[in-house]
Amino acid sequence: MASSFDRIADIIAENSEVPREKILPDSHVINDLGIDSLDFLDIVFAIDKAFGIKVPVEAWTQEVNAGNAPAEQYFVMKNLAARIDELVAAKG
Amino acid sequence: MRLEYFQMVDRVASLDGEAIVVESTIPDASPVFEGHFPGYPLMPGVLLVETMAQASGWLLLKLMDFERMPFLMGVKEAKFRSFVGPSTPVTVHAKRIHDGSGYAVTQARIEAAGKRICDAELTLRIMDFPAPELAAAMRNRGKELGLA
Fold this sequence. Notes:
The complex is a heterodimer.
Chain A lengths: L3 H11 L22 H15 L5 H9 L6 H4 L1 H15 L1
Helix pairs in contact in A: 1-5
Chain B lengths: L10 E6 L2 E7 L5 H5 L9 H19 L5 E12 L8 E11 L3 E10 L2 E13 L4 H13 L4
Antiparallel strand pairs in B: 1-2, 2-4, 3-6, 4-5, 5-6
Keywords (chain A): Fatty acid biosynthesis, Fatty acid metabolism, Lipid biosynthesis, Lipid metabolism, Phosphopantetheine, Phosphoprotein
GO biological process, one term (chain A): lipid A biosynthetic process
Organism (chain A): Neoroseomonas soli
């Protein structure tokens, strides 16, 4: 099976105008790829469905806005993939 | 329905878990019909979308116990299958198909006399109420509809 990174990158390419080849492990979803909030919700919906999870975007955003976590922890592709893997693992 | 006030839902017919059915009647007359269209009044497609969004919104408000507010932010796969005009009773079905973090996705359709008029998949962003007046207004209307 493809890695979580590849699956997420495919989802982003399908739900935005970002070419698949430009989506790299160090890409920041918003700053580098320019994903806007509407496209990002479509992407989260697709990730939720594909992985059978509920990506806690609101909690992540609150953590970042409160200064309790760097945005990179959630919104850089390789870290996003790691967070998704953690959510899948927690699901059991 | 009161088109000029964007009040698209007349009554709630049923609420069953993640699904709602509401009923409304397209008004006999409205300035909307003077332009859409002269001599051939039709309910505009954008107002049919709004009607599906409001049915979805009432469902989500009820599921969230009126604690947060859904706002329409995406419409996908909208199909308008048949014309519908003044004085027509319609039934609106909406079902939550995904409960995300800060958003929800619904599937909705409108029928008239058992015939499908339109359908769409709607994405609604879920936010804290941006104004206390809005929260109060939604709760008051929700009470009138038997939801709050």
